[in-house]
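On clarity, I found the account of how folds are encoded harder to follow than it need be. What matters is that the chain and its backbone geometry are given together, residue for residue. For the editor and my fellow referees, an illustration may be useful. For illustration, here is how one protein appears when written out as sequence plus structure tokens:

___
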Amino acid sequence: MKKRVLKDELPYPKNPKWARRLPTILTPEEMTRLIDSARNLFHYAMLLTMYSCGLRRSELCRLKVSNIDSQRMVLRVERGKGGVDREIPLNPKLLETLRTHWRWMRPKTYLFPGTENGWRADKPITPKVIWEAVQEAARRAGITKHVTPHTLRHCFASHLLESGTDLRTIQVLLGHRDIQATTRYLHVSPKHLRVAVNPIEQIPVSGPANLKRSRKLRKPE
């Protein structure tokens, strides 16, 4: 209408609920194959950290050596989505891998340093490096599902739910503000879906054995 308006005042269409697809979840066996198919120790440590802590790609990029607290056995995420800090339990298996990684690469500030002019530099890696590491590992593992770096975060939450962790705890570990964002994993949890009793179990149907068969729908070859 040729009127000057502020961008913040423009209404945006809401994302319809039917367009929110369920995340891809790998089985524990597929996750093992994915991580073990990493090209080198650098990629292996990145994949193991993302899965063990449920990190976003941006959070892994900014992860610092000082964020690893081996005394309290926690990994601290600073300025996550929404600028919120959180702490995640540090698994001993992950800690041993990160120590091996540190002794090999000797990072100064960032746990997974990037490169500059082909050499390691004291700067964060780019999200593209993580993307390529996951894609290559999935290809080497022979996984045909659509796998992205965020898939590891989805698997972290789903596998926690499968092992009996409550939704509130998973919400805190993921850094979700709204519990509704966490309940989506109920839709992809076979264990919780199997708990629901199908209504067909409550009615006495006779079964297909004695039913009349219909005519053939196509001619015999």
